[in-house]
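User: Hello! My lab partner asked me to get a predicted holo structure for this protein. The small molecule is 2-acetamido-2-deoxy-beta-D-glucopyranose, SMILES included with the sequence. Please write out the C-alpha cells.
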Amino acid sequence: MLVYFMAMVLMGVSVFGAPKERTTFSFQFLMPDVQPKKPDTYLCHGIDAGEEDVFITAFSPRANKDVAHHILLYGCEEPGSTSSVWNCGEMAKSDSKYDSANVCARGSQILYAWAMDAPNLHLPKDVAFKVGGNTGVKTLVLQVHYKNVSSFVEPENATDASGLILTTTEQPQKRRAGVYLMVTGGEIPGKSIEYLEAACAFPDAELEIHPFAYRTHAHKLGRVISGYRVRDQHWEEIGRQDPRKPQMFYNVTSPNLTVRQGDILASRCTMENNYDHNVRIGPTQNDEMCNLYIMYYVDGDRLLEPNTCYTQGAPRWYWEDFPDQQAINLAGVPATVSVVPGDKMVMEKTISEKSDDGFPGLGSHDLGQNDKTGYDAAVDDLLDEAVSNMEPDEVEQLVAEALSPQRGHPGTTGGRQTRLGWLTSHMYGHNRY
Ligand SMILES: *[C@@H]1O[C@H](CO)[C@@H](O)[C@H](O)[C@H]1NC(C)=O
Ligand SMILES: *[C@@H]1O[C@H](CO)[C@@H](O)[C@H](O)[C@H]1NC(C)=O
Ligand SMILES: *[C@@H]1O[C@H](CO)[C@@H](O)[C@H](O)[C@H]1NC(C)=O
Ligand SMILES: *[C@@H]1O[C@H](CO)[C@@H](O)[C@H](O)[C@H]1NC(C)=O
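Assistant: Hello! Below are the C-alpha cells for the protein in complex with 2-acetamido-2-deoxy-beta-D-glucopyranose.
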C-alpha cells in the first residue's frame, strides 16, 4: 500500500487533503487520459483516500456520453491493482496495455453510479459518505465502461478523461450514508420464470435507517427487482426497477420510510430464462446476479452492521422459508412485486414448488456432500478464485459462513446476514452490466 501511495504521489496524482482555509472543495477524479482499444472495455483508476476522514457530499459526472457507457465509484479497503489504471472487466483482454484485475481486492462498496440518460443521484441534506482515515475505504476506484472505442484507435488516437467531480469536506456531517446489499445465490431453470428471494430481520436494536435511493443489478435474465420493508405485517415498497434500465441509483418509492428493529427487509428478483439450460448465480455475463443495493443515511456516524442480507435463493430458499412466517405475512405481499414498472402483467413463476425436476440433489432425499447443486458449484468457483488472496483463518470462517445450512444458524433470522464478506466483495469485484 505504501508503495502504491508513493507511486501515486510520484505520478503527480493528487491525494485528498483540503486546504485548511476552505471547508469544502471539489476534487476532480478523472481517468488519466486513457486509451481503451477494444469495445466494451472496463477501465479502473484508483486513488488513495488519505489518512484523514473525508466526507463526500455530492457527485457530479464529467462524462463524454459518446464513449462512457457508465461510471461507477467504489470504495475499496484494498484496490484490485496498484497500477494507476487497470483493466477491470471480466472479459479482460490479454492484448490490452493495461493489467487485468478486479475492482477491489478486498472490502468493496459501491458509492455512486452514473449512466447516460439516467437521473443523477443527489445526496439528501447533511448526508455524506465518509471515506479515508479508519473508515475501511482506503482507496477510491473509478470504473468506466467504454462501449464504443472508435475514437481511441487510428486515425484519431484520442484519449479519455471521463470521471466524477466529488464535492468533499473534512468537516464531519450530521448524517452518514451507507449501502445495504440484498443478494442471493441460486439457479434459474431453463424455459422458466423463477423468483430469487431474500429476507432479513433488521439487524440493529438502536439504529434507524433512512433509505433514500436504490440500485438493482442483474445480467440478462432479470426482469424486475423489488425491495420492501415489512413492519407490523404490512409490506411497503422501497423500490422496484427493471434491471434492463440503466443500473443507477434511483429515488426510493417513499422518501420518508425508515427501517428499524422489528422490521424485515425483503427483496425479490423475478428472472426469466428463455434458454434451454439452467443459469446460476455467478460472476460472468453468462451467469446471473440478483442484487438490490439500498442506499440509506443514519443520523450520526454509526452505519448498519452487518450490511448484507444473503440467502441461497431458488430452489433452496424462498420467502416461505423465513422462520417467522407470522411477521413476514406473505398474504400481504403487494400484487406488483413481479410486475415490471410501466407494465401490467404479473410475471408468475412457472415452477410452483420445490421439486426434483431439473435440480439434481434437491427434492425428497437429503442433501449429501456429493450432491452438488448449481449453487454449490458456483460457490466453489468463486471460492477457488477468492481464497488465493486470504489468510487461512479468514478462509475457514468465510467458507463456514457461506456454506452453512440456511436454517437454524445462530444469529440470523431467515436470510443470512453476513459482513461484507468474500462472497459479496468478490461479486462486487465483477460487478458490471
Ligand atoms: C461509435 O462512435 C462513432 C463516433 O464517435 C460512430 O461513428 C460509430 O457509429 C459508433 N459505433 C457504434 C457501434 O455505435
Ligand atoms: C496512432 O497510433 C498509431 C499506433 O500507435 C500510430 O502508428 C499513428 O501514427 C497514430 N496516429 C496519429 C494521428 O497520431
Ligand atoms: C429524487 O429526490 C430528490 C429529493 O427528494 C429530488 O430533488 C429529485 O428531483 C428526485 N429525482 C428524481 C429523478 O425524481
Ligand atoms: C416527508 O417528510 C417531510 C418532512 O417531514 C414532509 O415535508 C414531506 O411532506 C413528507 N413526504 C411524504 C411523501 O410524506
